[in-house]
């Protein structure tokens, strides 16, 4: 019986779980080990890149909320140092998050409320060279997101990000930006973080100078 079970396991696909909530990561690892023999975990940004170097995963299951490094930043960095496929595993179902994940180079996007069978399906599909977006988000959003792919120019801002940057430069708070653009505060904050990451500018003053130089204010 044990021999039959071992023969059913995927012995070649190497999975890395990047999740800073230990209980969740350990639970997911136990589930995945029922399908895949080679599963490792990383708890934060520095652990993630160290483990990628030593373990050489085929697929990274990446939580957007990973401590010390957000998932979008991590996906971009992973694209520079490994050929591993990235599947975002997150609570965020807003179209902006999904689109930004695929622009950064993700191959898959699933929600933490999805079933285990769906996660396995996502892993199988990205390993076969396909993109995967959970059916828990609207189909038009999923279709548009998977067509985006990585941006060749990391400093290319989307139209929405340009709108957010303009308001940041004009002194708007995250709440005011959200109200002005009819967004949630969480989404407004996400856009601001994405802008900082793309431009490599970490302060409001630096973002303001950039917006002025580009004639956006």
Topology record:
Layout: H1 2-8, E1 10-18, H2 22-32, E2 36-42, H3 45-55, E3 59-63, H4 71-81, E4 85-90, H5 95-104, E5 108-111, H6 116-127, E6 132-133, H7 139-148, H8 159-169, H9 174-181, H10 185-199, H11 204-213
What does this 3D model show about the protein?
- By secondary structure, the protein is of the alpha/beta class.
- It has eleven helices and six strands.
- Strands 2-1-3-4-5-6 form a six-stranded parallel sheet, with helices on both faces.
- Strand 1, helix 2 and strand 2 form a beta-alpha-beta unit.
- It starts with a helix and ends with a helix.
Summarize, please.
The protein has 217 residues and is α/β, with parallel strands linked by helices. The protein is built from 11 helices and 6 strands.
Properties at a glance:
6-stranded parallel β-sheet, 217 residues, alpha/beta, disordered N terminus
Structure annotation, total helices: 11
**Nearest-integer average pLDDT:** 83
Separation of the first and last Cα atoms = 69 Å
Strand numbers in spatial order across the main sheet: 2-1-3-4-5-6
Number of strand elements: 6
Secondary-structure-derived class: alpha/beta
What share of residues is helical? 40-55%
Poorly predicted residue ranges: 1-6
Instruction: State the shape.
Output: elongated
- Portion of residues in beta strands equals 15-25%
SSE pattern, N- to C-terminal: HEHEHEHEHEHEHHHHH
Profile the largest sheet: 6 strands, parallel
**What integer value in Å does the Rg equal?**
19 Å
